[in-house]
Amino acid sequence: MNESIKILITGPPRCGKTTLITELASEIHNQGYNISGFVTTEVKSGKYRIGFRARDIVTKNECWLARKGGKDTKYMVGRYNVYIEQFNRLLDESFKGFTLNKSTDLCIIDEIGKMELFSEKFISIVSDLFSSNLSVLATIGQKLKHPIKDQLLDLKNVKLYSLNSQNFNEIKTQILTHFT
User: For 28-87, how does the pLDDT look when each residue is reduced to its tens digit (9 = 90+)?
Assistant: First the structure.
């Protein structure tokens, strides 16, 4: 990869952002790119969502990001307890390669959202990655109100894609053209 690419994917909740970034990561990796980063997956009990887990793309190690019930924390989003200490440990693992491993071609971040942004470490990593020469593919909350979102959208080299239930394949194809 010669030129740094910075891509943000936004859209309403449950429109397929995580599915899209997971499929993109797999296809881009299959083209020979070295990727690092994490995805956040929904955890259900029956038909009810009980929380979210963050999973390292390379090692597959994961942690609770947020969960209903369980151990109380000082960080909450709605009825979800957010586990920043666990998340920070996963970040240490997922992003150490960006500074130590010069062969990383693409950093995956799913997602830049309210829960993740309780972590000062995460904010620093996101800011550093978007100002680096590394390529970044990330999802970001559509209704997110945080200074980091404004900072990222103000960058000249950031391409924003708005996903909805009708344009999944079109957006996927458009993003893949950056990696061929």
Answer: 999 999 998 999 999 999 999 999 999 999 889 999 999 998 777 899 999 999 999 999
Report residue 17 as tokens: 């952002």
Strand residue runs (E) in the chain? 6-10, 35-45, 48-56, 62-68, 76-77, 80-82, 106-112, 135-140, 158-162
Residue found under tokens 């309780």: 118
What is the rounded distance in angstroms from the CA atom of residue 36 to the CA atom of residue 97?
A: 7
Burial class (CB in 10 A: 0-12, 13-18, 19+), 123: middle
- Other residues' Cβ atoms within 10 Å of the Cβ of residue 60: 7
Phi and psi at 173, nearest 5°, equal -60, -45
Cβ atoms of 72 and 81 closer than 8 Å? yes
Exposed, middle or buried by CB within 10 Å (0-12, 13-18, 19+), for 32?
exposed
pLDDT digits (tens, 9 = 90+) for 88-97: 999 988 877 5
